[in-house]
Amino acid sequence: MKLDDIEESRHVEDRRMSSGGGRLSAGTLMMLWPLIRMLLRTKIGWAIIGLGVVAYLAGFNPLSLVGGGGSAAVHRAPGAQEQQEAVRMKKVLASTEQVWSQILGKYGRRYDPPTLVLYRGMTRSGCGYAQAQVGPFYCPTDKKIYLDLGFFEEMKRKLGAPGDFAQAYVLAHEVGHAVQDQLGILDKVHRLQQQALQRGNKTRANHLQIPVELQADCFAGVWGHYARRHLEPGDIEEAINAASKIGDDALQKQSRGYVVPDSFTHGTSRQRMEWFMRGFKSGDLKACDTFR
């Protein structure tokens, strides 16, 4: 993607140096061992250790209370590649803001941009704790998108989905959920899912999520249609490849060796590719009615 002429979005919260998920080094643990041994002798000491573990898992470095000496052991400075990806995501987000403001403006609606939260390992969100293992997601409670940039390495190494436009597609998909939220779609589906769960029909609740995800793919394609001037040869192929690698059937085959359609929540690889391309070719919000 060519993003040189795009400013970085201002709707970004960078928590990479304060979120959890890092590990204490062996050297730090050796230095702390005398203190830990002393604390283990009393009930209050056990309580202090327990609180410290909970705080560490929640993303707070308890060593900062004693002078911050452990900070470097828990958090490393972002590398050059990670910084490059962070800048790219900020610019892609800015591009989605321009496009969706334009599209929703045609329908007399004002676009409210979501905030992108960059974090490492674990952080707190309005929908509970965000964890890197879960992957990127949009939280309708606080209107924020949570992204651990390490996910892109997973995409490349484990899923075989490299490329800068593949990364842009992932973010554009989550922005698509923010658009759905503003249009009232997420609310309606959530109510239907709750009703299905109350009746004990988990399969129905799962399948109600599929058109939500496919529509977010289509919305990502709509954004791509309007952002074509930033594309380079091979970019669309990167997005299509990424969509094919994160279909429910592809992921289940990779992890289990077999497919369980009743547990699908995002759609098959073929569906995800088709809906992305439908949005990309049409550039039309109305072409993304996955609920029909």
Write the layout of secondary structure elements.
Elements (H helix, E strand, L loop, with lengths): L11 E3 L11 H14 L3 H15 L13 H4 L5 H27 L8 E5 L2 E4 L2 E4 L5 E3 L4 E5 L1 H8 L6 H19 L2 H14 L3 H25 L8 H11 L2 H8 L13 H14 L10
Parallel strand pairs: 1-2, 2-6
Antiparallel strand pairs: 3-4, 5-6
Helix pairs in contact: 4-6, 6-8, 6-9, 7-8, 8-11, 9-11
Written account of the structure:
The chain has 292 residues and is an alpha/beta fold. The chain has 2 domains: 26-74, no CATH class; 80-288, no CATH class. It has 11 helices and 6 strands. It has helices spanning 26-39, 43-57, 71-74, 80-106, 150-157, 164-182, 185-198, 202-226, 235-245, 248-255, 269-282, and strands at residues 12-14, 115-119, 122-125, 128-131, 137-139, 144-148. A hairpin with a 4-residue loop joins β5 (137-139) and β6. α6 (164-182) packs across α8, α7 runs antiparallel to α8 and α9 (235-245) runs antiparallel to α11. The longest helix is centred in the N-terminal third of the chain and has 27 residues, at 80-106. The chain is globular, with a radius of gyration of 21 Å. The two termini are 33 Å apart. Mean pLDDT is 86; it is low at 21-28 and 64-74.
